[in-house]
Specification:
This protein folds into two domains: 365 residues, 7 Propeller (Methylamine Dehydrogenase, Chain H), CATH 2.130.10; 71 residues, Immunoglobulin-like, CATH 2.60.40. Helices cover 7% and strands 41% of the residues. The two termini are 42 Å apart. It is built from three helices and 33 strands.
């Protein structure tokens, strides 16, 4: 029996690993600005120009198939197929007044994203302002999703559900939206920053439904009302989150960090770090204005956080909380076009977009896992000059880590796998009053805090948790564990 279980586990691990490998190229082709296409093939980067009349700025997004070939891309307000044509029913995918306010494309960072599901279906998500609620300094008040079925329309694809609101009457920031794959390896968590204060709204996208999973509030940072650029990001493992933004007039340079639980979608251990004052900045503006964070990226080994400002790039070392100045402007001030959001390419290098203008080159960090100057900032090394078109090296499309696979949530012994009668269920979870336990086991129910200290034992199936502080706890019955959230 043991050999059979080991074989089953080995097969499951192989399937999960194969799934991760199969999805590792979903971010290997980009659309950047004026129709430039960038494709990563091993150590080669292929470029071509396929302008279709649409403009692509910071709100763009894209997704490829498992071979790294483009399937869908968007400028935030329209959805295009791989040939650059409108996907059927994919034009004007936000309220018309909002569409017209921004001239038919989104210049606001992280304002669209594609989430792949089974059976060749995709969610497309974008925040927006509802009809009649327009102003450039207002927060978005609605979150919309559309469903794309690439099997429809004779295999050409079609938007089969358009602009479905899954959050209304809200106070959502225009920027700072990112997704992370659920621990089951199939569904997706979507995190969206909200309001002037640090509120994080959480949504779960499953194969057939979208769930509002509530929100978490943190004391700081205070983001401010005006937001144009900014970035939320997860590390490669999906267990750490970071967010910051361009908050004109505040200029605090604060970055929010937290651990993330892919099983339950809980942020914990919040921390705020502050970007250093800049050695290079706009000489016609206050020096603190450089503290407008445009982009964030964890290093693949999780040792560093890269913070992209308008004129400066920093590396934060988690081991000793030190900052290293990676780079200032990569050209003279008069010709420099601000740094923007950053994403990893298919070659494992960190690419950094430019803000607007006529740039034909994009900078990158070649060795993001190396401390200090060894990270090798390469100024304007991704060059679009051969395309002969200005403005092709601006924005990188918004992409989650499509290659992140499944993760086991709770420790289970071989005996547990072979014997399912000891299934443990706890509800409601989260709770602020009482927990109810459902299990056939007669063993003690033991409640532990997040550092493993035993708090309570009982054989009853109801536990009053109102006396405990808010946070993460663990319930153990026999050899089974269940994570508990006390609100």
């Amino acid at each position: 029996m043991t050999k059979k279980v080991i074989l089953i586990l080995t097969l499951l691990q192989t399937i999960v690993c194969s799934s991760v490998f199969a999805q590792s190229k979903l971010g290997h082709e980009w659309i950047t600005s004026w129709g430039a296409r960038v494709k990563f093939e091993g150590n080669n980067i292929l470029m071509r120009y396929t302008y279709n009349g649409a403009y692509f700025a910071a709100g763009s997004s894209s997704i490829c198939d498992t071979n790294g070939n483009m399937v869908l891309y968007s400028n935030g307000f329209n959805i295009f197929d791989s040939t650059g044509n409108y996907l059927e029913d994919g034009d004007t995918i936000v309220p018309t007044s909002y569409y017209n306010q921004y001239s038919g494309f989104s210049l606001l960072s992280q304002t669209s994203i594609f989430l792949p599901m089974d059976s060749n279906k995709y969610y497309f998500i974008t925040p927006a302002n509802s009809e009649g609620n327009l102003c450039f300094s207002c927060h978005n008040d609605v979150m919309l999703y559309s469903v794309i079925d690439m099997n429809a329309n004779g295999g050409a694809g079609k938007v089969v559900k358009r602009m479905i609101p899954f959050a209304t009457n809200g106070q959502f920031r225009k920027t700072q939206m990112m997704a992370c794959r659920h621990s089951n390896g199939k569904d997706w968590w979507l995190l969206k920053q909200g309001g002037d204060s640090n509120t994080v709204y959480k949504y779960l996208f499953t194969q057939d439904s979208v769930y509002n999973m509530g929100y978490q509030e943190f004391i700081e940072p205070l983001w401010g009302t005006w937001d144009i650029y900014g970035q939320s990001t997860f590390n490669m493992d999906g267990n750490k989150y970071a967010s910051s933004c361009d908050a004109s007039g505040i200029w605090t340079g604060k970055i929010f960090l937290a651990d993330f639980d892919r099983c339950y979608g809980i942020l914990s251990n919040p921390k705020v770090i502050t970007m250093p004052k800049a050695p290079q900045y706009n000489p016609n503006a206050p020096s603190d204005s450089e503290r407008l964070t445009k982009g964030l990226a964890y290093s693949p080994n999780n040792k560093f956080l890269y913070v992209i400002g308008q004129f400066n790039i920093w590396q934060f070392d988690f081991a000793d909380s030190s900052w290293f100045h990676v780079a200032g402007m990569d050209t003279t001030f008069n010709k420099f076009q601000h740094y923007e959001a950053s994403y990893y390419g298919g070659d494992g290098k960190l690419y950094i977009g430019n803000f607007g203008g006529t740039s034909k080159q994009m900078s990158r960090i070649d060795n993001p896992d190396v401390k200090g100057a060894g990270c090798n900032f390469c100024p304007r090394c991704l060059r679009f000059d051969s395309l002969g078109v200005y403005g092709t090296a601006q924005s990188i499309p918004c992409m989650p880590n499509y290659s992140l696979g499944a993760q086991e949530c709770w420790p289970e012994s071989t005996k547990d796998i072979m014997n399912n009668k000891n299934k443990l269920e706890v509800y409601p979870n989260p709770s602020s009053t009482s927990l109810y336990i459902k299990t056939e086991s007669k063993e003690q129910r033991e409640l532990f805090n997040s550092i493993g200290q035993l708090l309570f034992t009982t054989k009853e199936n109801e536990i009053n948790v109102s006396k405990y502080s808010k946070g993460v706890y663990y319930l153990k019955v026999a050899s089974k564990f269940k994570k508990i959230i006390i609100e």
